[in-house]
Amino acid sequence: MRRDDWQLGTWGRIPVSMHWTVLLSAAWLYIIFQNVPFTLIGCVAMIVLMLVHEFGHVLALRRRKLGVTGIQLFGVHGETTYNVELNSVTLHFFKEEWDEFIQLVKPLVGGKSA
Ligand SMILES: [Zn+2]
């Protein structure tokens, strides 16, 4: 876990953290709204939306029986990390890296790469 994150707790056995860059989004929302209450409502809505999105990834990963290791929120996006265990080796992936990995190994196991 990064040290410039705030831990928001462990939700459904998944550590959730928020990076300081989320504060930049708060400033950006204030520039748009020019109103503190609207900015606060916007911040809460944005964070809830990011979490709902990331927990969608968690749902998909758990369906594939992949171990989710954490959720980190950044500026206006989040990342869900997870791992794959191959005998004694554990690989940690972000979603995009996993997609690249699948594209690389597909031809090796007789599948077609997209
Ligand atoms: Zn996503």
The hetero molecules present are: zinc ion
Q: Would you tell me the overall average pLDDT?
A: 86
What is the strand tally? Answer: 5
Residues in β-strands, percent? 25-35%
* Number of separate helices: 3
Termini distance?
33 Å
- Bin the helical content: 40-55%
SS content category: alpha+beta
The tally of domains stands at: 1
Helix-strand sequence: EEHHEEEH
Rg is 17 Å
Which overall shape is indicated by the principal axes computed on the Cα atoms? Answer: elongated
User: What is the spatial order of strands in the main beta sheet?
Assistant: 1-2-3-4-5
Low-confidence stretches: none
Biggest sheet architecture? 5 strands, mixed
Offer a quick outline of the entry.
The protein is α+β, with helices and mostly antiparallel strands and 114 residues long. It has helices at 22-33, 36-63, 95-105; strands spanning 5-11, 14-19, 67-74, 77-86, 89-94. A hairpin with a 2-residue loop joins β3 and β4.
Overview of the structural elements:
By secondary structure, this protein is an alpha+beta fold. It has one domain. It is 45% helix and 32% strand. The protein contains three helices and five strands. A five-stranded mixed sheet has the order 1-2-3-4-5. Strand 4 (77-86) and strand 5 (89-94) form a beta hairpin. Helix 1 (22-33) packs across helix 2. The longest helix has 28 residues, at 36-63. The two termini are 33 Å apart. The relative contact order is 0.13. The mean pLDDT is 86. It binds zinc ion. Zinc ion (ZN) binds at residues 53, 57.
